């Protein structure tokens, strides 16, 4: 089966079970400064998991574009990717375990055609300290499901991942209970790491057995959560029914939710019984193009195969991010686009591809995905231009870095020097190691890693301060800024024209940062008028009303909206209207707002206006 066939089959399967299909949200979360990327299907749906009504109902299904920056170093094996699609279905207080688990099993075995004998499942073993019991209900459901297939499934407590390697699996065992580290899901990880107010819950994962031999380098015995490659997780049903309290304990959410996520690429690999996800159509098309450009053959040796995978994965991820408006830079999301492309260039050189040809791979990615994501075709020229320019820029950086390396290459390279070469001169550690080996000198990698850890700790601390109190917390001050930002956009459109649209926002308890489409610098006189517009709206005591309507009707009525493609067919329109009938703002949204502008305290002040990227301006504003 192809990627498109599996995606379509999944969406149709759940639509037949009264689920409304919703579009994928952008890779860069809108109005969520707590994270750089959308890394799971539940991120855009968090308010609805906490109880807010979704305009499309209580049963939802989608395929969500996702990017996980933490997996960059993992790419190179046969199953990790940074960019992926997450198939998702949700129950917002509707059905629960007894429907979800049989449905997913039916999809896998009847629709995709997987052999039930090759499926193994895991559940949550419970946590006595937190008062959360073992998921016996899921165990009984799974036993019944397997029994219907003629399989007597034995359930066993494994405990930790280390326990799994020590104990292994025994005949007939098919249901494995693990601790929270493996079978509890929240955005923050295990229950102990969750902050107060964060939702989470036990989960049940399904693994596909490729039947490959166990590699004891990973542990003495194999088990479903083993990393040797025999088993691959293909779906995770999260039963999101708890929320963490300020005292560290847990209580039940007002509604029981199902939050399912299944890696599309992994399900396609299982459907074709190939343990290498880079052999499925959506990735192998890129691989074959790399073969043509390099003269190498994928799979002939592991070192070159790892290089193929890195180029294919990183390139695809960069294409999608640039398609969503992220361009290479040294900060925030742009840093990761730059890192992906530069790592891909290093590996294309390993494969002896012709320099300055990376951008020629763009059409094959667009061909694979344009039916589902038409914005890629529309952005083709922009994507190619950014990739071509970034490769050229990086090759010049490497030339300069070589000169710096030569200054240090008479003797062994210290960890500090390797760190400076990387961070100051953009010289990749892989190149430092390669050149050092050629000269017979060593690199202090322990010292390099120590310097990098200190650097990353400082970066994390800065990011935590920068993103502290983001819109996702729904706090009072953040909510004020969110409503004020709607008024800011309305004011900008009033004085700059209706071609102005939102291009991104970052809202904290201390300020709003707002990006908008406009080709040139905005003069101070106009900014003063926009400020006055916002402050007049605050004084007018405009009331916020929320109404649901078909998306096409909202467009026809001139409702302002960015990223229209991310909204479902029925949308929420937020209108600020005063007692005299004056409409101050009318916009699509889905987050927390004041009920009346008289709740916004302080005077709105635009403190900075600057360029964000080509054709996009940025303003920072505060409530003083």
UniProtKB/TrEMBL annotation:
One Pfam family this sequence matches: tRNA_SAD
Protein EC: 6.1.1.7
PROSITE patterns, A to Z: AA_TRNA_LIGASE_II_ALA
GO MF term set: alanine-tRNA ligase activity; aminoacyl-tRNA deacylase activity; ATP binding; tRNA binding
Domain Alanyl-transfer RNA synthetases family profile, chain residue ranges per copy: 1-624
Coiled coil residues, start to end: 366-393
RNA-binding as UniProt keyword: yes
Keywords: Aminoacyl-tRNA synthetase, ATP-binding, Coiled coil, Ligase, Nucleotide-binding, Protein biosynthesis, RNA-binding, tRNA-binding
One Gene Ontology term from the biological process aspect of the record: alanyl-tRNA aminoacylation
GO cellular component: cytoplasm
Origin: domain of life: Bacteria
NCBIfam families: PRK01584.1
Family classification: Belongs to the class-II aminoacyl-tRNA synthetase family.
PANTHER family cross-referenced by the UniProt entry: ALANINE--TRNA LIGASE, CYTOPLASMIC (PTHR11777:SF9), ALANYL-TRNA SYNTHETASE (PTHR11777)
Protein name as annotated: alanine--tRNA ligase
Native source organism of the sequence: Candidatus Kaiserbacteria bacterium CG10_big_fil_rev_8_21_14_0_10_49_17
């Amino acid at each position: 089966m192809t990627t498109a066939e599996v995606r379509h089959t999944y969406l149709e399967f759940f639509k037949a079970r009264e689920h409304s299909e919703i579009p994928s949200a952008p890779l860069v979360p809108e109005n969520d400064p707590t994270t750089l990327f959308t890394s799971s299907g539940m991120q855009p749906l968090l308010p609805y998991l906490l109880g807010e009504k979704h305009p499309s109902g209580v049963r939802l299904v989608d395929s969500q574009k996702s990017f996980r920056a933490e997996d960059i170093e993992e790419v190179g094996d046969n199953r990790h990717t940074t960019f992926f699609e997450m198939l998702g279905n949700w129950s917002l207080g509707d059905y629960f375990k007894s429907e979800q688990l049989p449905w997913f099993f039916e999809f896998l075995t009847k629709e995709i055609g997987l052999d039930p004998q090759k499926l193994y499942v895991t559940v949550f073993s419970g946590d006595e300290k937190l008062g959360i019991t073992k998921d016996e209900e899921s165990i009984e459901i799974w036993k019944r499901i397997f029994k219907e297939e003629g399989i007597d499934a034995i359930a066993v407590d494994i405990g930790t991942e280390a326990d799994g390697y020590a104990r292994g699996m025994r005949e007939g065992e098919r249901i494995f209970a693990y601790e929270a580290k493996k079978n509890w899901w929240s955005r923050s990880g295990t229950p102990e790491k969750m902050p107060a107010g964060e939702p989470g819950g036990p989960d049940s994962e399904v693994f596909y057995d490729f039947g490959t031999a166990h590699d004891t380098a990973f542990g003495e015995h194999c088990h479903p959560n083993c990393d040797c490659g025999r088993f691959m997780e293909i779906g995770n049903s999260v039963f999101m029914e708890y929320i963490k309290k300020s005292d560290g304990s847990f209580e039940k959410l007002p509604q029981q939710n199902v939050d399912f996520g299944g890696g599309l690429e992994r399900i396609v690999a299982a459907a074709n019984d190939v343990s290498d996800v880079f052999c499925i159509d959506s990735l192998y098309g890129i691989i074959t193009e790399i073969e043509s450009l390099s003269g190498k053959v994928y799979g002939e040796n592991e070192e070159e195969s790892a290089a193929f995978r890195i180029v294919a994965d990183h390139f695809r991820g960069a294409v999608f991010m640039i398609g969503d408006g992220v361009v290479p830079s040294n900060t925030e999301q742009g840093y990761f686009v730059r890192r992906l492309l530069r790592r891909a260039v290093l590996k294309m050189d390993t494969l002896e591809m012709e320099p300055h040809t990376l951008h020629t791979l763009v059409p094959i990615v667009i061909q694979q995905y344009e039916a589902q994501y038409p914005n890629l075709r529309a952005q083709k020229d922009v994507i190619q231009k950014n990739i071509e320019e970034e490769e050229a820029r990086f090759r010049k950086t490497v030339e300069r870095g070589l000169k710096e390396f030569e200054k240090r290459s008479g003797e062994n390279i210290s960890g500090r020097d390797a760190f400076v070469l990387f961070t100051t001169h953009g010289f990749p550690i892989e190149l430092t190691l390669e050149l050092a080996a050629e000269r017979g000198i060593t690199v202090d990698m322990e010292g390099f890693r120590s310097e990098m850890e200190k650097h990353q700790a400082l970066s994390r601390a800065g990011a935590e301060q920068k993103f502290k109190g983001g819109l996702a917390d729904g706090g009072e001050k953040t909510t004020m800024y969110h409503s004020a930002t709607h008024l800011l956009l309305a004011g900008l459109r009033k004085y700059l024209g209706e071609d102005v649209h939102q291009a991104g926002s970052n809202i904290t308890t201390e300020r709003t940062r707002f990006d908008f489409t406009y080709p040139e610098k905005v003069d101070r006189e106009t900014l003063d008028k926009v400020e006055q517009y916002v402050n007049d709206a605050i004084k007018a005591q405009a009331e916020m009303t929320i109404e649901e309507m078909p998306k096409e009707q909202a467009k026809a009525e001139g409702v302002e909206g960015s990223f229209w493609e991310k909204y479902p067919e029925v949308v929420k329109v937020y209108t600020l209207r005063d007692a005299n009938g004056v409409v101050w703002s009318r916009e699509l949204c889905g987050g927390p707002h004041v009920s009346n502008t008289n709740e916004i305290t302080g005077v709105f002040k635009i403190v900075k206006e600057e360029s964000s990227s080509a054709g996009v301006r940025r303003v920072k504003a505060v409530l003083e």
